[in-house]
Structure formats: C-alpha cells, structure tokens
Design goal:
The structure holds two protein chains of two kinds. Chain A is mainly alpha-helical. Chain A is built from five helices and two strands. In chain B, a hairpin with a 4-residue loop joins β3 and β4. Classes of the chains: A mainly alpha, B alpha+beta. β2 of chain A pairs antiparallel with β7 of chain B, so a sheet runs across the interface.
Chain lengths: 158, 176
C-alpha cells in the first residue's frame, strides 16, 4: 500500500484547505465581525470542514488515473454547492450570498431599509470557467518529467 | 490487494494522450476567451451604470388633511449617454400596512423598458385617501392596535439584462 498515494499533493491540499477554509476565516470573522451581524461563522466553519475533506481527497490519487478524474468531477460539484449556499471561503467576499444574491437590511435614523443585488450570471460564468479549468487539469496528460541531474552529472557532461 | 490499489491501476489509455492534450489546449483557449468576455462585459456594465443620472422633480410628501397620505412627484432617469444599456422590468411599489403587518393597500407602477440612449420621466403618484383603502375606517382602527401606519416603498429593476437591483424603505406615520 502507498504507491498510489500522491503524498506531496495530499499534504499540500490539506495545508491549503485548513489555512484558507478554517484558520483564516475563523480569525478574520472574529476580527471583522465579532458579534456575528454580517457573517455566519458556524456556516463558514461547517463549509470549511467540507472544503478540507473534499479537497484533501481530491489530492490523494496520482494524476492520470480514472479515479482522480471522478473525484475531480465531485470537486466541481462541491464548488457548485459552495457558490449555491454561500458563507464559505469561495464567496467570503460577499456576506450571506447564496447563488449570486446579496441582501443587506438595517435601520438608518429610524427608517428600515433593504437593499438587494442579484448577480447570478457572474456566478454561473465564474463557475463554468472554474469547472472548465479543473476539467482541463484532469484530462491534460502529465507533463513529461526530465531526469534530475546531479551537479557532478551536469558538469561531467561538459 | 485493496480497492484503492485496484482503482489506482485504472489509468487513461496511452493512445488518448494526443487527443487529451489537444482537448486541454482547446479548453484553455475557451477559458481565456471566457475570462476576457466576462471582465470586458463587467467593465462595460460598470462604466455604463456610472454614466447614468437620476433626478428628482417636484418630489414631496402629500398629506393635505388627516384622510390623505402619500408621496407625489416624478423621477427623471437619464439613460441617454452613448455607452448606456437598457433598463428593464422597472417596478415601483408602495404598500401601506397596519402595525400588525396587515396589508391595506398597494399601488404599483411598472415599465417594461427604458431603452438605452433615452431619457424617461416616471410620474409617481402614491396618494392614498381613506376611500382607496380596502377596509373602512372602523375596520382599519380595529385591525390596527395603535395610531400608526407603516408605509413600504419598494423599487426594483434589471440593468443590462443581467444585474437585478432592488431596494425598499419602511417608514411609520401617525393616523392623526
């Protein structure tokens, strides 16, 4: 066991997803919005755990295997979920956004106000382009790797 | 041999390398073109929205007596700059509620389109008298626990067919 695991990718994905899916959102939300008025920290952390699990699994298998292709398709599906429900690293810049819907309400000098902005077409376009890019990585043949020469080999050839 | 070992053995055929390489280049071209179109169109829409101007004309709240309430006036939308875009599905609505959120009356103004390169004046007449209400005054007073009414003013529109905006304000007013 073990030869099929891409250890470099699995640890890189795990590190990246924990940092960007859990650690940064946790400290950022507590710093920017400690009372939880704008951001839903529980939802962000829940989606962060999903991000860590799926993205780490995505890094397990070596390139050019069919199983990695299918897991990659699931990763695209997970991205669609993230953009649909909002409150995660990928839609972090827009509070409480669900599939391109931004809503803000509040009270200004005694007058209740609501503002809504729907940008679903940007979400669909971004998702399609991201999905295509992941698909491109999945079907692209692995790059030809040249033999790493030692210094003595390099100088010895001259 | 474990399931993972078996799964890891199933690889793409060696003969498919050339096809997959060409397909990945084709997808890369699509992605580059897609991002160029996306950011290009976003830039155009932002610039065209920035050039739009809205002007209020004779805008005042109308409450000449204690049986009439409302807002009267006009809004002029300057969508006539050369790089403008169409504004569609313009919906302006004013609703009066009792304090217990019972809807009393709604007036609505709808325009299908303000085409680009055009200026449009939208008349707003949201004046309500007691005769307009769906309830007579005794029913209204029994529905409402206080002497207050809530007026909700809502507007929504679609810009350049892809961006939908909406806003609403709610104000309270005395019946006296």
């Amino acid at each position: 066991m073990g030869y099929w695991i891409n250890w470099v990718t699995i640890f890189r994905n795990l590190f990246f997803s924990v940092i960007f899916g859990l650690v940064i959102p946790y400290y950022l939300v507590n710093y920017v919005d400690p009372s939880g008025l704008i951001f839903d920290l529980d939802a962000i952390l829940f989606n962060g755990v999903i991000f860590v699990v799926v993205y780490t699994i995505y890094g397990i298998f070596n390139k050019d295997t069919v199983i990695r292709f299918f897991i990659g398709c699931c990763w695209i599906g997970t991205l669609i979920y993230f953009y649909t429900v909002g409150s995660n690293f990928f839609t972090f810049y827009i509070p409480h956004s669900g599939f391109g819907q931004l809503s803000i309400d509040g009270n200004y000098r005694g007058i209740d106000f609501e503002f809504g902005y729907n940008y679903f077409w940007i979400i669909i376009a971004t998702l399609s382009l991201k999905g295509l890019n992941i698909l491109r990585h999945l079907i692209k043949p692995p790059e030809r790797r040249f033999k790493q020469l030692t210094i003595s080999e390099k100088f010895g050839k001259k | 041999m474990s399931l993972a070992d078996n799964l890891a053995k199933v690889k793409f055929k060696e003969e498919s390398k050339g096809f997959r390489h060409k397909l990945s280049i084709f997808i890369l071209i699509l992605i580059v073109l897609g991002y160029l179109c996306l950011y290009g169109y976003l830039g155009y829409v932002s610039a065209s929205a920035y050039g739009m101007k809205v002007e209020m004309k004779d805008f005042e709240d109308s409450q000449p007596d204690n049986t009439t309430i409302g807002i009267d006036g006009a809004v002029i939308i300057h969508n006539d700059h050369w790089y403008s875009a169409d504004i569609t599905d313009i919906d302006i609505k004013m609703t009066i509620y009792t304090e217990d959120d019972v809807k009393i009356k709604t007036k609505r103004i709808h325009y299908d389109i303000i085409p680009r390169l055009k200026k449009k004046e939208i008349d707003l007449d949201f004046t309500f008298t007691l005769e307009d209400f769906d309830y007579d005054i005794s029913e209204l007073m029994s529905l409402n626990q206080t002497d207050e009414l809530e007026i909700k003013f809502e507007a929504s529109f679609t810009y350049a067919y892809v961006h939908t905006y909406s806003f609403a304000i709610t104000i309270s007013t005395d019946l006296e």
